[in-house]
Design goal:
Radius of gyration: 25 Å
Number of strands: 24
Order of helices and strands: EEEEHEEEEEEEEEEEEHEEEEEEEHEHH
Strand content: 15-25%
Largest sheet: 15 strands, mixed
Helix content: 10-25%
Bound molecules: 2-acetamido-2-deoxy-beta-D-glucopyranose
């Protein structure tokens, strides 16, 4: 294969970047500094740049580092210990489609960082150290459909933090420290959003404004938070919801009034395992007429109440998933204070519930995600 080695020399004579060009791709090693001067005149016909920190030193990228990179489709810069992204680092690259910036140390991005990138579809900023996003960071990205901000240290997102993204359909905010969120205030086009990942944050309450205007949302993952309250009518805002994950929270009660009176016509999969639930009201499933599968285990169900739930599942042909480990007797599936008790009375018994939950804390059961996809 035709190979050409380029050594880019800075004005003061130091070789700062060791890059190899292979046909229309550039691969860089031991790079600690990237600027417009370094790539100046070398980006014609280049559609791919990969910079990975084999130098193990922080990488600085300056404004317009990739200018004239009109053929660039993909930029990948991972594991580089990049600390900051300056204004206009990525702009006017009309063919750029994917930007991979994960596994760096990015803690701040000065707006506008991503500007006028008309073909850009995805930005991966996961596994960095972002604790906030400045307003105006993203500007004129008409085609951006996926933004990954997972595994950062975000505690909240300010109003309009993700403004100006008219085509954003998939947003990953999981594995941060978000305590509260009102999605429609952050996004300029909440109606476009189809997939929202918020699992593994520190949410405690889901208010009925939290999901406002997310009228086309199909998948919502709220698992592994500390949610104890979901306000009535919260899901009135998300009539198209198909998958709802509430696994590993602290819900003691879900009445059914969280869902719209007219029903959730598209909700097929509901995960409510590993909460503090002891019963579900008999009307609970009425508003969920399309339900095909649920997860239930790891809740301190009252045995007679769980019996009632199983009857409803059988009658409506709803499958229970991810229960195998429990059904083989590894863990208790329900509680009862008195074996004579055969009727579900819909009252919460905090002492019994606490006992069951403590048992779980002492004997945790780890079910690999792959074993339990519904
Ligand atoms: C980058 O580093 C790896 C391993 O040290 C080496 O095999 C490769 O040839 C280097 N590439 C360049 C462009 O220097
Ligand atoms: C980039 O290269 C062109 C010609 O190769 C030169 O005229 C121009 O001054 C360079 N720009 C910078 C910022 O170095
Ligand atoms: C790069 O683009 C600038 C305008 O942004 C232009 O002045 C310059 O000549 C271009 N350099 C090359 C090498 O094409
Ligand atoms: C956006 O980028 C294109 C090149 O891709 C350029 O022609 C145009 O002037 C830029 N628009 C603005 C507002 O800077
Ligand atoms: C979005 O990208 C498509 C092709 O990928 C392009 O045809 C279209 O013009 C882009 N949209 C905008 C608003 O730039
Ligand atoms: C928005 O993104 C979708 C892919 O998610 C794409 O098919 C569509 O062309 C984009 N729309 C616009 C207006 O850029
Ligand atoms: C949640 O995050 C914690 C630390 O931030 C991690 O230890 C744990 O594995 C994560 N859980 C999931 C389900 O991602
Ligand atoms: C949930 O709240 C408890 C205290 O009530 C706290 O110890 C724990 O760290 C919280 N977990 C998450 C994921 O926020
Ligand atoms: C957002 O939702 C509110 C309340 O549901 C509604 O009044 C408003 O018209 C909606 N906004 C848009 C842009 O759809
Ligand atoms: C590809 C590569 O060499 N990445 C390295 C970047 O720096 C970290 C921390 O020093 C290393 O663990 C990675 O191996």
């Amino acid at each position: 294969m035709w190979l050409q080695i380029l050594f880019f020399v800075l004005l003061h004579g130091k070789i700062s970047c060791d890059c190899i060009k292979k046909i229309n791709k550039i691969f860089c090693n031991e790079t600690t500094f990237v600027s417009g001067d370094i790539f100046n005149g070398t980006l014609d016909n280049i559609n791919y740049i990969e910079i990975i920190n084999r130098s193990r030193k922080p990488l600085t990228i300056t404004k317009d580092s990739f200018k004239n990179g009109t053929d660039l489709k993909t930029i990948l810069m991972k594991e580089n210990k990049i600390r900051k992204l300056y204004a206009y680092t990525f702009r006017d690259l009309r063919n750029l489609e994917s930007l991979y910036l994960y596994l760096n140390d990015i803690s701040d991005m000065y707006p506008p960082t991503f500007v006028n990138l008309s073909s850009l579809k995805t930005i991966y900023l996961n596994e960095n150290k972002l604790s906030f996003i400045r307003e105006g960071t993203f500007e004129d990205l008409p085609n951006l459909s996926q933004l990954d901000l997972s595994h950062n240290q975000l505690t909240e997102l300010g109003d309009k933090a993700l403004n100006n993204l008219p085509n954003l359909t998939k947003l990953k905010l999981n594995n941060n420290k978000i305590r509260a969120i009102f999605v429609h205030k952050i996004l300029s086009h909440p109606k476009k959003l189809k997939i929202l990942w918020l699992h593994n944050n520190t949410l405690t309450v889901l208010s009925n404004f939290a999901l406002e205007n997310l009228s086309n949302l199909k998948i919502l993952n709220l698992g592994f938070n500390n949610i104890s309250t979901i306000e009535e009518g919260t899901f009135n805002q998300t009539p198209q919801l198909n998958v709802l994950v509430l696994t590993h929270n602290k819900l003691k009660e879900i009445s059914g009034n969280e869902f719209p009176r007219r029903g959730m016509d598209f909700l097929e999969r509901l995960y409510i395992d590993h909460n503090y639930l002891m019963y579900l009201q008999s009307k609970f499933f009425i508003r969920l007429s399309s339900l095909k599968s649920v997860t239930l285990m790891g809740n301190p169900w009252f045995c007679p109440c769980l019996e009632d739930i199983y009857k409803t599942l059988r009658d409506n042909d709803i499958k229970e998933k991810c229960q195998q480990r429990y059904m083989t007797g590894e863990r208790p599936i329900c509680v009862n204070d008195n074996v004579e008790n055969k009727v579900c009375t819909f009252h919460y018994d905090p002492i019994l519930s606490r006992k069951y939950i403590n048992y779980f804390i002492h004997f945790p059961i780890v079910i690999p995600i792959s074993e339990c996809l519904i």
